[in-house]
Design brief:
It contains five helices and three strands; from the N terminus they run αβββαααα. By secondary structure, the chain is α+β, with helices and mostly antiparallel strands.
Length: 134
């Protein structure tokens, strides 16, 4: 069911689905043509299903421009909205851990001359992260 839903979304939005060990959204441009692709592991359960939806969200969902953390949150929101099921508590926390890893990434780089932007305290980013980590 989950795998078929990912295939249907890819077909509907003209996205090439490639096998990979980690989720990744890609856009290739060649000879004036644009090809959107996701590289995802085989969908065997909820976590890999949501990862696949998240990568599709990077390509077609709202919030594709902006700073990295906002783009990640927007793709997760799209995945949660488009999913056929609500994530289990364990799956939701795994999604939260993935989103939290971007916060850690940004915090470790705050000393740089051009550090990654952390969302302000009132941002919906933090509400999403709190929901996912609860």
């Amino acid at each position: 069911m989950f795998d078929r839903h990912v295939d249907e979304l890819c077909e509907l939005h003209d996205i090439v689905r490639l096998n990979g060990s980690r989720g990744r959204a890609e856009v290739h441009r060649r000879n004036g043509r644009r090809t959107a692709a996701i590289r995802v592991p085989p969908v065997r359960g909820q976590v890999t299903y949501f990862v696949a939806l998240h990568e599709i969200g990077h390509l077609i969902g709202p919030g594709r421009s902006g700073v990295r953390l906002d783009k990640e949150a927007a793709a997760w929101r799209w995945a949660l909205r488009e999913a056929l099921v609500e994530p289990t508590d364990a799956c939701r926390r795994r999604i939260g851990a993935r989103l939290r890893s971007y916060v850690s990434w940004a915090e470790r780089r705050q000393h740089r001359r051009r550090p990654p932007v952390l969302p302000p305290p009132e941002s919906q980013f933090w509400a999403l992260l709190a929901y996912l980590e609860a």
